[in-house]
Amino acid sequence: MQQVKNDEAFVAFERVQKSYDGETLVVKDLNLTIPKGEFLTLLGPSGSGKTTCLMMLAGFETATHGDIRLDGVSVNNIPPHKRGIGMVFQNYALFPHMTVGENLSFPLEVRKMGKSEREAKVKRALDMVQMGDFAARRPAQMSGGQQQRVALARALVFEPELVLMDEPLGALDKQLRETLQFEITNLAHQLGITVVYVTHDQTEALTMSDRVAVFNDGRIQQLATPDDLYERPQNSFVAQFIGENNTLTGVVQDISDKSCTVRLDSGDVIDAVPVNVSAVGDRTKVSIRPERVEIDKTRLQPGAHTLKAEVLEFIYMGDIFRTRLRVAGMDDFVIKTRNAPDQVRLTPGTKIDIGWLAQDCRALDA
Amino acid sequence: MAEQMMAADGRTLKSSLNRALRRQKLRALLLITPLLLFILITFVVPIGQMLFRSVENQIVGDTIPRTVEALADWDAATDPVPDEDVFRAFAADMMVAVEERVHTRLGSRLNYETAGISSQFRRSGRDVEDMGEDLTAQFTALDPAWADPATWVALMADPDWIADSATAQTEPAFVVADAARDALPRTADIYADFARVTQVANNDSPTEEQPWNVVYIALYQDLIANPAPQIAGAPDGLLGAAGAAAAGFVAPDIRAAFVDSDAGWGSTVTWQTIQTYSPAYTSSYFLNSIDLKQTPDGIEMAPENQQIYVKLFIRTLIMSLTIMVSCILLGYPVAWMLANLPSRQANLMLILVLLPFWTSLLVRTSAWKVLLQQQGVINDLLVWVGLVADESRLTMINNSTGTIIAMTHILLPFMILPLYSVMKTIPPSYLRAAKSLGATNWTAFWRVYFPQSVPGIGAGSILVFILSIGYYITPEIVGGTSGIFISNRIAYHISSSLNWGLAAALGTILLAVVLALYWAYDRIVGIDNVKLGG
Ligand SMILES: Nc1ncnc2c1ncn2[C@@H]1O[C@H](COP(=O)(O)OP(=O)(O)OP(=O)(O)O)[C@@H](O)[C@H]1O
Ligand SMILES: [Mg+2]
Question: Looking at the 3D structure of chain A, how many domains does it have?
């Protein structure tokens, strides 16, 4: 067994596969390394295998194939209770027959810690999540947000180096989620712990994480920092899944190292950056973010291609305007413009030309 | 002080809320009325009646009222056998009872308290008719008119009744004249009974039947007390002559006649029994239920060889507890598996658990008989394996072992189902959370899972315990003598010995014990901690 301590790979999944029924692979060839102190989020649609990965790491599911290493040690044969991993569950999983204080002292008791030390640690952990006054309450006597804070404190009280959280904020309302997102990231950085966080809320993933692993169909589609993920999606799934996105389909007409032109199915030709197209004639989906579409021709590079568009709908959203257009025969092309004093408000029926900087338009897989 | 909340119309918020709720409550009540009535009629009333039987004892006073009255001054502890007056009263009572065929019932009732009385009543019931016939003969010898039913009617009947019966199609119920009651109180009293019995029980007319001998005895007593009774309209000279002659009659010796009929009447024990159990309400059934006995010297322990009930109650409790504990031990793992298996397999297993419910209780119990008997399957197997020698096959049936095994099997579903439905609601994430916090499998189970399943254990235990404490069929079939429950004894008293009072008292005590245990359980565990699901 490899005992070398490797800071670059505090947690490592190597060629991990998982099947529940022996017929379909829920996790297919997962390779992932997480350095110490990183906040990594697993993001993906429902059923993509996020929880399964977390459970394999925690020891509640065994990998059908491959190796999972924690701090350089293969954990495949270590039972869950010896892994020393903190966990926060979506339904909080606070023990209903114990008070908050007893819930928190449980992990310390099973570690045979002395009473006074236990009490000190419990108090410190509760204070950390601003729940110091609730030690005598039972879980049922608290709100969802308070319960989740306590669950967080319980996962941290025995000072694990790795904490797993499976949609911990899934059951809370938006405002509370935002507060807690902030608190969780703060705590994680303050304590220097490594966090693997599961969510299917992309905003949550983008705002909280150091890196995000986008899951789909049992594979990591892209593992990148939030801004990379948003600005430089590697495939059309990621582009679709993260943020709002306009997609046009066509065939590569001309390709060089840095740029390509794509003939859309409507016959129009546009400029794009080739991401995973390699040859003339490849079918592609080009992706362009709504806020990167220009309606002001003067700001485009000279000679850039433009497309004809007809305004279908104008929605005032406060900070931005959202305009739906018909472009290249499609009715769901959306652009977003900032609500600035000099910004034009397009009225439905207007015909305009739109364009973009070539680097904002990515030619992805079909 | 907090100000009272006011609703818009100025009433307090509370009262307007109550008003709003009242209609709802009424409607809800209306919905359950049929069930309420059904329960009341088929459950509460019969049980109430049954409980009433455990203290009710009107049979003695109703059947032999004259005797009870005559015995009032008799002191059981010091006096010898009661005097002739008591026996004469008793003869009168017996005569009525025999004609109404209720004397054996009284005999059985008193037999519960003193063995042997029943046969005394039966034997003397046959003889009482002839007691005092010598006296009757002396009256008829004096004047043959005494043998004539018409003479008696003329003496006793109310004039209105005579007038009515002359015109009516069917004879109206006999009415004794007030004059007769004044002049010949005892005679009138027994004659009234005679007339009633003749009319009702024998479907005859007092105008055609010669009175019983005991009527003549009463007349004799009345005439001794008052030799010159005056009854207007009585046949001339009849009473006067009898009154004058009575003193010279050979007095009847009813006591001797009874003792002759059955020596038991000559024993004070018999009379003590009658006197002790003459009040309309008695605690004797309850005393008997706990092996006590009412005697003239107060309450005493029943004879050693008759002390069975306390032992039986204790055995019932201990065996019910044993069955309950066995059910927990066997049912818990099964319920756990049920709750944690994938639903397809869980459903299949649930059907297996419920399967016994679809088989007749009798069949299942008899099957245990086949399995457990000395030449049965299990013993054969043990002998074949060599665990038990052929000569020393285990006795597992017709004793408490058999009862415990068979009843554990039968009641197991009642433990598994509530356990299962409670466990079903415990999310697996609790166990995972516990393990992730560092608890071993056992600690996680014991500190996290088990406490949450306790309400299920509570519910199952109450069900199993209460069901088993009143169980009857299984112990009856497989229990032999050492494995039967108090309920078997109750059933015996209901259907065989017909001592319903004792059965009712035993049942009442059983009910009280169950309620007391329930109360204790509520105090210790808390009834809120019992869940049947959800
Ligand atoms: N215990 C199990 N037995 C069989 N199949 C399972 C089991 N748990 C999960 N699966 C299947 O594995 C796949 C991945 O499930 P997983 O719970 O990992 O998804 P997820 O990404 O966490 O989804 P969600 O966002 O809805 O929580 C799903 O198709 C699911 O049906
Ligand atoms: Mg999940």
Answer: 2
